[in-house]
Amino acid sequence: MSEVIVIGGGPAGMMAAGVAASRGKEVVLFEKNEKLGKKLYITGKGRCNFTNKSDVNTLLENVVNNKNFLYSAFYTMDSERLIQFFEDLGLKTKVERGNRVFPASDKASDVNKTLKKYLKENNVEIVYKKIKNIETENNRIKSVITEKDEIYYCKSLILATGGYTYRATGSTGEGYEMAKNLGHTINDLYPSLVPLDLYERYETEKLEGLSLKFVKIKVKNPNNEVIYQDFGDLVFTEKGVSGPIILSASSNLKDVKDKNYILSIDLKPALDYDKLDQRIQRDFKKYANKDFKNSLNDLLPSKLIPIFLNRTKIDLRKKVNQITSDEREKIISLLKEFNFTIKDYSSFDEGIITSGGVEVDEINPTNMESKIIDDLYFAGEIIDVDAYTGGFNLQIAFSTGYLAGLNV
User: Fold this and answer.
1) Given the DSSP bridges, would you call strands 125-127 and 27-30 parallel, antiparallel or unpaired?
2) Integer-rounded Cα radius of gyration of the chain
3) Quick one: 188 exposed, middle or buried, by C-beta within 10 A (0-12, 13-18, 19+)?
4) CA–CA separation, 235 vs 241, rounded Å?
5) Tens of pLDDT, residues 321-369
6) pTM of the predicted structure, to 2 decimals
7) Where do runs of H (alpha helix) occur along 191-272?
8) Structural domains in the chain?
């Protein structure tokens, strides 16, 4: 019989297993993939932005769902302590724009190697088998059963199976079913930090690959109420939009499918209405004798111009010096509110993180233990907590993993 079994060899599971073993516990870590940390290899575009060098308040501010649940986890293992943890294990780190922390080598594999080194140093046994069921007795953890019906007994269990995004890496959601079978509530699952699909695909297909820098977006509900706004960069995809501000927006939108939310893009946020009018009048004076269709080259990216022109409904052959004040006003309105209708999230496979999961009210936030089953603990993405990009989600994984391993 093992003292502790950890299911899931991602960042949360590896941290939990290593910390528990460092306390002298006999730990067995189960991973269904052929190697540990498979998802880690592709985080941060293969560079692994493993935390954000910020104080605890900033970490909490960047959590979208159930931030209060993470107080104990973040105060126990904050970003400074996490950086020091990796540095002490020999991983050199660096801080980049937005306080994002990466391995100095720019290789996600080095983060993985460091965690595996930590497991080896603390004599964690690693078993590459898939768990299909968890057994209890008298409301306590008893054993786990592999897909080949092998039984492994244990005193405690940490469930760190990840979420439901990047399913090719093994995040296929079976941990949710395990938790549900043990009596836990699983809140609705949505892809988060995910591109958005738009209804205007006839336009986005033509705009695919176009990147817009320093634009402002607003997301409005059908009542024209602004429910989210941001400033930064976005990029058009074949089906819709992606980029930093879109991914952040997706974290704040729940169940967008067929809700007719409007994505409004301010293409010229640095200019108010009057200044933009003055700018356009200068451009029109410059191109006074040209056709309208040839007058926007100084104002918009070439790829966007045909779509924009079509939306104005102004005769493309009309001479610029014949454009009326009402038509100019329409152009300004379009520049300030270039609208699309949100159809849905892109797929879970395109999401960075899963929103939803095990209900936090059923987990003790001070030690990550289940309030329903004794000696059952949770760590990482399986819990209903998620955050913005910038290293915050991996910080959640490592902090909750550390706290579970410390208390199991």
Assistant:
1) parallel
2) 25
3) exposed
4) 6
5) 999 999 999 999 999 999 999 999 888 888 888 889 999 999 999 999 9
6) 0.88
7) 201-207, 244-252
8) 2-190+353-407 (3.50.50.60), 195-346 (no CATH)
